[in-house]
Design the sequence.
């Protein structure tokens, strides 16, 4: 058995097939397990996903068994469920954003064929949940089986406690009102992406020394005006997919820049946890750019994230199409956009580094030739 502990404000675990391999699960949504067949994700063992205000310190243990385990210790857990999965590729265990837990993934390994997974959890509504995952081969296929459920967290309602949580008060009429929230929007107009990226590189070189090989080289921006938002987004991910992981962690205060693959994972989880937990329907209107919808919509493309706070590129139509919103883990998008484009974000970042001025609530510091941030 392998065990780890980690801390997070987005309390979701995944057992999934690695890469493009497929898994199928025979189960409806339960109180603990939510099997899906979308992409490679199959099992998500969640806690109370309605409550993102608590940093949880989660212990997870994984065990591979030769046969079905005894049920003698079930009463030690609050909720215990089993489901079978048909696997044709290696399994891995990740957090809700797709970050792989190496030791757990090595333990669960290549359990191909028809297998059964038991997930047991306790203290899911507290700040120190415990989860145990066991997997073994099986010859018979059955539906999801709930062996015990005595806590108040029920994923059939995606995050309710003993008394079901009422859906968000936002209605379709509310979110259709076309009133952009621009009180925190930077006055910097859209700036061509590559020009702004070079500006950041030049500014960092001036205060921290030469950066050869640190920031990817960029081409000249096409001579077009205004900035094409979709081309900007594509160019941005081209940069992020070539940028080293360490730099992606330090370039913005309190956020990690995402590659295109990481962005897809964050969007998938955020849409599910915000919309389904609150009772929203994914097909509801998504309003126009910069208009708060108080939930995570599919037209938000994450470009940076940490602990469930997400910097998103707003692809909805409207005057502010392509703006950048800081989606808060508790207040959602109620504050509205912060930047008119990714290029404008980079321009303001460069100015902040050059003048040691505030940026997203922090002040840049250069320590030993390295960029750090100090919260104000």
Sequence:
């Amino acid at each position: 058995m392998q065990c780890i502990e980690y801390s997070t404000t987005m309390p979701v675990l995944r057992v999934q097939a690695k890469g493009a391999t497929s898994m199928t699960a025979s189960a409806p949504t339960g109180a603990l397990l939510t099997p899906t067949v979308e992409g490679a994700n199959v099992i998500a063992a969640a806690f109370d996903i309605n409550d993102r205000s608590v940093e949880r310190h989660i212990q997870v243990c994984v065990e591979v068994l030769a046969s079905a385990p005894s049920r003698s210790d079930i009463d030690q857990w609050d909720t215990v469920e089993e489901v079978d999965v048909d696997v044709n590729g290696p399994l891995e265990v990740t957090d809700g954003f797709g970050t792989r837990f190496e030791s757990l993934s090595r333990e669960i390994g290549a359990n191909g064929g028809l297998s059964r997974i038991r997930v047991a959890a306790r203290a899911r509504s507290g700040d120190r949940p415990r989860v145990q995952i066991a997997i073994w081969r099986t010859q018979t296929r059955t539906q999801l089986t709930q062996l015990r459920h005595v806590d108040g967290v029920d994923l059939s309602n995606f995050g309710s406690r003993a008394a079901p949580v009422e859906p968000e008060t936002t209605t379709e009429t509310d979110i259709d009102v076309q009133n952009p929230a621009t009180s925190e929007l930077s006055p910097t107009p859209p700036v061509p992406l590559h020009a702004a990226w070079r500006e950041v590189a030049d500014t960092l070189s001036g205060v921290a020394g030469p950066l050869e090989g640190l920031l990817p080289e960029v081409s000249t921006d096409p001579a077009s005006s205004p900035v094409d938002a979709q081309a900007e987004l594509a160019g941005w991910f081209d940069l992020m997919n070539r940028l080293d992981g360490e730099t992606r962690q330090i370039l913005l205060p309190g956020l990690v820049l995402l590659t295109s693959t990481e962005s897809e994972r964050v969007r998938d989880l955020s849409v599910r946890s915000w919309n389904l937990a609150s009772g929203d329907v994914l097909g509801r209107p998504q309003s126009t750019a910069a208009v708060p919808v108080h939930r995570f919509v599919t037209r938000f493309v994450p470009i940076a994230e940490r602990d469930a706070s997400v910097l998103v590129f707003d692809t909805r139509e409207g005057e502010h199409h392509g703006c950048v919103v800081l989606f808060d883990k508790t207040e959602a998008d109620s504050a509205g956009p912060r930047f008119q484009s990714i290029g404008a974000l980079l321009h303001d970042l460069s100015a902040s580094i050059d003048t040691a001025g505030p940026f997203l609530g922090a002040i840049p510091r250069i320590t030993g030739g390295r960029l750090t941030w100090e919260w104000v």
